[in-house]
Amino acid sequence: MSAADRGGARLAEAVKRAYAAGLDDYHLEPMVLTENGVPVGRIRDHDAVVFCCRRGEREVELTEMFTDPDLAVVERRRLDDLYFSILTLYHDKFKNLPVAFAPEHVKLPLAQVLSQAGKTQFHCAESEKFAHVTFFFNGGENAPFPGEDDVCIPSPKGIDFDQKPELSLPEVARTVREALGKYDFIVTNFANGDVIGHTQNTGAKLEACGYVSRALEQVVEAALAAGYVVAVTADHGNIEKLYTAAGKPDGAHTTNLVPFVLMDPARPGPIALRDGTLGDVAPTVLDVMGIPQPPEMTGRSLASGHDWGGERKMLLIICDGWGLGTGDDGDAIHLADTPYWDFLLAERSWSRLQASGDAVGLGAGKAGNSEAGHSNLGAGRRVPQDDVRLDAAVQDGSFARNPVFLKAVEHVRRSGGSLHLLAYLTHKSSHGSIDYPLAICRMAKAEGLPEVYFHIIFDGRSTEPGSAPALLAELDGQLAQIGLGRIVDGVGRGVILDRDKNYDKVKRAYDALLNGDGAQYQ
């Protein structure tokens, strides 16, 4: 391998061939570098792996396949001596793994405050967003609090989501309606705005908006009839923005404000609402329900002057990826047939909430995401997100001195193995950044390691469609400057990062990493 050949150009050519066959970055199947017919850079016993993603619900299944000896849902080859480390603790089941950045659990999230007040609560979403109304909404806790029931409705399986833009929303809406009257507080997520918003299918996005509007009518009207105060909001923007500045379909999150609609069936007149942030929603819930706000919550009720007339029951609907758009032909919600949503904006009280950047604990100017959105919604305060913590560590140099990464280097030096970095090829995703594996690679160079293997995860969400070859060329140049690192395979996020128990799909990526299975290139 020449100093200039770091593997990016070769993988880029394989990606271009996959594009020609109709695949996009998100759905790219495993591609593996071979030399003389032999796969290069496979993960073996005595090696060390750093999984350079930071988020959680999409990283769980691959982590299980590498580290859980009792996982029996698929057959896979196990490695007996593998140092496998993760950036953040995205599930308690991994608490015994090497975790580079320990979690910052939220103290007294809304669900815990309600539980301590003796209130019953119901959390419901389809599986694509179930972790968000449980783990993230509850401040990083996997187990429900006393008095809390959680119900997960399976998302569609075996098809591209844009082929079923309603997803499992009809079942979610039915389940929530059936819970009315049985619980003091209900929170639900309508996933369509984000899941379908991430696709490139404009028609499916318009249909999805229509399904959300109809589900809102069914659930909101039933809840009001049952005496519930109802709030409708969103965790971040997405589906409202149809096109990029270049006129291409846009599947990325936005920095747009999100709506907060509030309805009181006992007092149908206007409610004086102020604008705010997602961290003001939990204090509003406590205000409605007549529960004192703990000092840990620094947000403020959005309707502090309203007389709720005592303790009330409340329903919170989170329309995922449902931002306030431009109101023109580039705005899916504006274009779609959404009569009930239009009615809410015209006839009900509502305000605007900040859901991106520093307002939700992200870097300045960064688009919101579901993790940040739901953690702020449930916490009642601004929650510093992992991207801020990790980016700061990269900038001040402490990232490369992290003991977990140094132990990975020590492991391979002692065992004679290799260091492998599962590298997310993007600059600004909620799941990670290419800056993380690059920082570890620089550290490995300083420590004198002879080789580091990069296993690329293509994004297809926070990156422009078709941008993978250009990003690979950029990475090639950075590795050449470092003088270490080799790109040996690649796979789309839609294959390797799953959150819906599609282990057979994740296994295709796992088998590529260990065995070299997949489309081979030279």
Any overview of this molecule?
- The strands form two sheets. Strands 1, 2, 3, 4, 5, 14, 15, 16 and 17 form a nine-stranded mixed sheet that branches.
- The protein has two domains: 8-102 and 388-521, BPG-independent phosphoglycerate mutase, domain B (2,3-Bisphosphoglycerate-independent phosphoglycerate mutase, substrate-binding domain), CATH 3.40.1450.10; 121-383, Alkaline Phosphatase, subunit A, CATH 3.40.720.10.
- Helices cover 33% and strands 17% of the residues.
- With 522 residues, the protein is an alpha/beta fold.
- A hairpin with a 2-residue loop joins β1 and β2.
- The chain starts with 7 loop residues before the first helix and ends with a strand.
- The protein is globular, with a radius of gyration of 23 Å.
- The longest helix has 24 residues, at 202-225.
- The chain contains 17 helices and 17 strands.
Number of domains: 2
**End-to-end separation:** 12 Å
CATH class of the largest domain: Alpha Beta
* The CATH architecture of the largest domain: 3-Layer(aba) Sandwich
Rg is 23 Å
- Portion in beta strands: 15-25%
CATH T-level fold name of the largest domain: Alkaline Phosphatase, subunit A
The CATH superfamily of the largest domain is: Alkaline Phosphatase, subunit A
Structural class: alpha/beta
Task: Specify the helix fraction band.
Answer: 25-40%
Give the number of DSSP strands.
17
Largest sheet: 9 strands, mixed
Uncertain spans = none
> What's the overall geometry?
globular
Number of continuous helical runs: 17
- Would you tell me the overall average pLDDT? 94
